[in-house]
């Protein structure tokens, strides 16, 4: 009888707190969004499942206290991966990849192998739009400071405005690992909501005439340019900003593998197998950090609120700079492509195309918007490097 | 009260300097990309001239190339029109179904049997 009682006592149901119950409901809701609504399902599904696993009492797959000790200078386990390996659960061991900043870089490698920088090379001015869209990061950094977050936390919250999941995770794991769960969830949720968030801002900041501007066809880009581009960008950015080297280096390595045409096997592996494996590990472990204690507090709500501000400001920054450029250049730019400067590849570019076609169905902005879109990836990685240098 | 405890000069410095650095770095990249484009296009333009200095047609060829590249939209429109035209021709078909009766004889029945077996 005592054994039976002990068995029942060990059941998760007996040890489930209301906070854990609420977290399980939130994870079910996120799973619903991923499966039924298809909001960034490739990442939201493993994140939500990681959240589910970490909040199951007694499963012991993730131990936040081990990671607290890992960061505590007075603890004997300070920066001890050995302690994590010997005492940790499955998700603790997988989380080492996040902590060491490995997963976001590997994902960037896959992103690079899938990205065509041709539109950006054909129209280098797109880089300016990608830079202006990073305005959201820095304005949100200011706002987060004013709301009582530390500077390192504010930098991590601001990077949500870069609309780039791996960059957000990379920077947050370095500056404010305690906020990793809410920031990753905010970043990926808002990226999925780009078609909802951006169009009202785009319509509010542009006139009908501006939205109907037709842009001239982009020049063809030679293979040589496409091969030299990743090498040149890596060298220059890493020499100016060494902290951005891991992200930019991996992005450009992936792109070089794709463009050079002599390592098709590597390119395909980066695009498919490597990317898929890392996405599973990254999603699960990021979701695992969303424990009831770290997630259910007012700061999470504040992060979610500031994330949407960051997205909005980034969108506005890109559009306003495009309008400003129109004042000085002979060849007019459709300001709608400025909104694509907030990474979120390729959804933001697709939104520019859709809103443009509402005004002029014969207007094809997609390739023009891809320029600022991929420039936004570089811009947000650069912004992350700057924040890491100044706040890390 | 929170606002008073924040190190505002540092926060403003990070915001201002950080954003300006993003802009400056990407402006540098713009110049490099433009330079790269110019160098490569020059290299490609010069290469054929060196190999065949006199044989090339003097003025007509470059003009023709320019005309073609400037009319890319027109070419795309013509191609689309042709595509639609041929598709619509394909769509106009007599809506009659003919069933061809196959006469079987002692000579052919073996053959049909073998084919069916093979499938």
Note down, in words, how this protein is organized.
- The complex is a heterodimer of chains A (392) and B (119).
- Chain A is mostly helical and 392 residues long.
- Chain A has helices at residues 2-10, 12-15, 18-35, 41-54, 64-71, 81-87, 90-99, 102-114, 118-122, 126-132, 135-146, 151-158, 165-175, 180-192, 194-205, 208-211, 223-240, 245-260, 264-288, 292-295, 298-328, 347-359, 366-391.
- Chain A has one domain.
- Chain A has 23 helices and no strands.
- Chain A starts with a helix and ends with a helix.
- With 119 residues, chain B is mainly alpha-helical.
- Chain B is built from 5 helices and no strands.
- Chain B has helices at 2-5, 8-51, 60-70, 72-91, 106-118.
How many alpha or pi helices of chain A? 23
Number of strands of chain A: 0
Reported for the largest beta sheet of chain A, the result is: none
- What is the number of domains of chain A? 1
Radius of gyration based on Cα positions of chain A: 22 Å
Structural class of chain A: mainly alpha
Write the H/E string of chain A, N to C.
HHHHHHHHHHHHHHHHHHHHHHH
Range of strand content of chain A: under 5%
Structural class of chain B: mainly alpha
Oligomer: heterodimer
Main sheet makeup of chain B: none
Largest interchain contact: A-B, 43 and 31 residues
Residues in β-strands, percent of chain B: under 5%
Residue share in helix of chain B: over 70%
Unreliable residue runs of chain A: none
Q: Separation of termini of chain A?
A: 57 Å
Report the strand count of chain B. 0
Average pLDDT number of chain A: 91
What is the typical, i.e. mean, pLDDT of chain B?
A: 72
Gyration radius from CA atoms of chain B, angstroms: 35 Å
Low-confidence stretches of chain B: 54-68
């Amino acid at each position: 009888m005592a054994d039976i009682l002990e068995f029942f006592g060990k059941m998760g149901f007996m040890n489930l707190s209301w906070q854990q119950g609420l977290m399980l409901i939130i994870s079910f809701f996120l799973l619903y969004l991923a499966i039924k609504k298809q909001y960034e399902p490739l990442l939201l599904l493993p994140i939500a499942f990681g959240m589910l696993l970490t909040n199951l009492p007694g499963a012991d797959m993730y131990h936040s206290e081990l990671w607290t000790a890992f960061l505590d200078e007075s603890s004997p386990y300070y920066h001890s991966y050995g302690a994590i390996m010997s005492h940790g659960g499955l998700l603790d061991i997988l989380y080492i990849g996040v902590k060491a900043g490995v997963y976001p870089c590997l994902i960037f490698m896959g992103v690079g192998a899938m990205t065509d920088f041709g539109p950006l090379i054909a129209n280098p001015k797109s880089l300016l739009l990608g830079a202006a869209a990073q305005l959201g990061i820095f304005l949100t950094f200011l706002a987060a400071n004013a709301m009582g977050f530390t500077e390192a936390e504010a930098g991590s919250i601001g990077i949500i405005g870069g609309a780039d999941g791996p960059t957000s995770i990379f920077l947050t794991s370095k500056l404010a690992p305690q906020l990793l769960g809410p920031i990753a969830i905010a970043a990926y949720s808002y990226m999925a909501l780009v078609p909802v968030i951006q169009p009202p801002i785009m319509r509010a900041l542009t006139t009908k005439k501006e939205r109907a501007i037709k842009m001239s066809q982009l020049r063809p880009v030679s293979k040589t340019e496409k091969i030299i581009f990743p090498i040149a960008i890596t060298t220059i950015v890493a020499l100016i900003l060494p902290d951005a080297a891991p992200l930019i280096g991996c992005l450009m390595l992936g792109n070089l593998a794709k463009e050079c045409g002599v390592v098709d096997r590597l390119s395909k592996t980066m695009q498919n197998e490597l990317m898929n494996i890392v996405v599973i590990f990254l999603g699960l472990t990021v979701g695992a950090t969303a424990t009831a204690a770290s997630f259910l507090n007012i700061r999470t709500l504040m992060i979610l609120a500031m994330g949407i501000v960051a997205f909005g400001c980034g969108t506005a920054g890109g559009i306003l700079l495009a309008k400003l450029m129109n004042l000085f250049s002979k060849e007019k730019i459709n300001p709608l492509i400025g909104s694509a400067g907030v990474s979120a590849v390729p959804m933001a570019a697709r939104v520019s195309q859709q809103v443009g076609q509402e005004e002029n169905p014969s207007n094809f902005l997609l390739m023009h918007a891809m320029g600022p879109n991929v420039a936004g990836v570089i811009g947000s990685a650069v912004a992350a490097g700057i924040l890491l240098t100044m706040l890390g | 009260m929170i606002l008073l405890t924040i190190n505002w000069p540092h926060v403003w410095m990070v915001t201002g300097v950080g954003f300006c650095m993003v802009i400056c770095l990407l402006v540098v990249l713009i110049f490099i990309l433009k330079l790269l484009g110019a160098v490569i296009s020059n290299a490609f333009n010069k290469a054929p001239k060196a190999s065949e200095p006199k044989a090339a047609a003097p003025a007509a060829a470059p003009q023709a190339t320019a005309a073609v590249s400037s009319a890319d939209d027109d070419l795309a429109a013509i191609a689309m029109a042709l595509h639609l035209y041929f598709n619509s021709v394909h769509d106009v078909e007599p809506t009659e179904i003919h069933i061809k009766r196959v006469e079987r004889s002692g000579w052919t029945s073996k053959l049909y049997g073998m084919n069916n077996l093979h499938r």
